[in-house]
Every structure is written in structure tokens, then in C-alpha cells.
Amino acid sequence: MDDAALELQKLDALLAKGKWYFILVFGVLYWGMLTSLVVALIHYFILGDPFWAELQRALYIYPISGILFGWFAWVQIHRKRDKLRAQ
Questions:
Q1: What does the alpha-carbon distance between residue 74 and residue 19 come to, in Å, rounded to a whole number?
Q2: Sign of the alpha-carbon dihedral angle for 35, 41, 46, 50
Q3: What is the C-alpha to C-alpha distance for residues 70 and 31, in angstroms, rounded to an integer?
Q4: What pLDDT was estimated at residue 1?
Q5: In this predicted model, what pLDDT tens digit does every residue of 21-72 receive, in sequence order?
Q6: Which of 50, 60, 72, 82 has its CA 20 to 30 A from that of 41?
Q7: Is residue 11 a contact partner of residue 87, using CB atoms and an 8 Å limit?
Q8: Which residues of 9-40 are buried (b: 16+ CB within 10 A; e: fewer)?
């Protein structure tokens, strides 16, 4: 099995889980939560702001933004799958 066929198989398996699963897991959970943590740590170490207050603020902003990030990544994966199928 060549690389393109293997990648197509992985993309199909990922897309089979559904749009909302992908957006919530990869967008909100992975990107949103991890970005919130990183931003809170940066604000804590560089600016000296209280960590828990920054984390609380970041947990409002970045998981909501993660919905957009997850949707954008979903669209990109569909495009990549379509290109691989066309080959």
C-alpha cells in the first residue's frame, strides 16, 4: 500500500467519526484547552499576572475560538481527502 492510499485511509477513518466530534475534540479540547494553558503560563511568567485568573479568562476565549479552528481544520481535511481521491 502506498503512502497516498494509507493517508486516505487515515483521513476517511477520522472523518467517519463525524464533524462535531472532530470540532469538539480537536478544536475545543486539544487546541482550545492547550492554548488556554500556554497563554496563562506566558502571562504568569512574563507579565506576572495571577495564573488562575489568567487561566479562567483564557478558558473563556480559546475553547470558543477552538470551534472555529476545528471547523477550519475539518474543511482542510475534506479538501486534502478530495485531492487524494482525485489522484
A1: 7
A2: positive
A3: 8
A4: 63
A5: 999 999 999 999 999 999 999 999 999 999 999 999 999 999 999 999 999 9
A6: 72
A7: no
A8: eebeeeeeeeeeebbbebbbeebbeebbbebb
